[in-house]
Amino acid sequence: SDVVRHYGLQLLDHVVRVHWNDAQVFQTQTTKDDFRRMCLQLLASGTRDLVSERGFVKEKLCAVVTEVVKLEWPQLWPSFLADVQGLCEQGGATQAELALVVLRVLSEDVLE
Question: Which of 60, 71, 90, 97 has the fewest CB neighbours in a 10 Å radius?
């Protein structure tokens, strides 16, 4: 269900915001890299198509990715922009929309 998926994304968002630098949760940079790859995988294929995916689920997924970006880019995630571009090129309309939403949310957070 959409509500369950949104709740799961809220849990991921909480882990990133509160425990990203906690050595007990993310013991190594490799663990963080795996989490980052999982986020990209969710953007690439973890959502429904453009029309059927609920907006609040897309927004929360992009918010989770944006939180990781704010903590890792550019020092530890130098390929972020290339990854977003690849997402636009490899996927369809849904992935392009998600990539643009990530960039929008990132720009809004930076300007706050």
Answer: 90
